[in-house]
Design a protein that fits this description.
Length: 183
């Protein structure tokens, strides 16, 4: 059995800079910010979406509507024998019809969470566009999904884990690359 090792790949300062850059890219690519809605994917996509909305407010003095999306029961890769799942409450601003929705998530890996998010989002109406913003893209796609806004590309092996920690949930901002076995 291999010992577990972790190394930091994004510090608190780097996460902040990355989210600032993503916010600027979103502003540049969406000339009519009144048509924009940010939707964070539980768990860590939600605080990331809030931070991006705050940065856009700081830069453009506009409040971007925020939503929260739990994709637990929309995933196609859950083990039916798993213990009971606890889903978070989904909240989508009342009107997504004709809007540009930016799904915000922490890590893009196989693409299955993103596919589930799009499936769930469509239950609330038909947006004009759906875009994807991720803090990290680690590759290894199983579905034809590509992010529109990427904080950082992290080459990983399938055996490695990316551990995103955010102060709102974990008390600290850091991203770790974890090698080896879990204890």
């Amino acid at each position: 059995m291999t010992a577990k090792s972790e190394r930091e790949i994004l510090s608190e300062k780097e996460i902040s800079k990355t989210l600032s850059r993503l916010s600027h890219e979103i502003i540049e690519n969406n000339p009519d910010l009144t048509e924009l809605v940010l939707v964070g994917v539980f768990t860590r996509g939600v605080p990331l979406a809030r931070r991006i909305a705050l940065k856009i407010k700081e830069l453009e003095d506009i409040d971007i509507p925020l939503g929260e999306l739990d994709v637990t029961f929309y995933r196609d890769d859950l083990d039916n024998k798993s213990p009971a799942l606890n889903a978070e409450k989904t909240h989508i601003p009342s009107d997504v019809e004709g809007k540009t929705i930016i799904l915000v998530d922490d890590v893009l890996f196989t693409g299955r969470s993103t596919r589930a998010a799009v499936d769930h989002l469509i239950d609330f109406g038909r947006p004009a566009k759906v875009r994807l913003a991720v803090l990290l893209d680690r590759g290894h796609r199983e579905l034809p999904i590509r992010p529109d806004y990427v904080g950082k590309n992290i080459p990983t092996s399938r055996e490695q884990r990316v551990k995103v920690m955010l102060s709102e949930i974990d008390g600290v901002d850091s991203v770790l690359l974890v090698d080896g076995e879990d204890d």
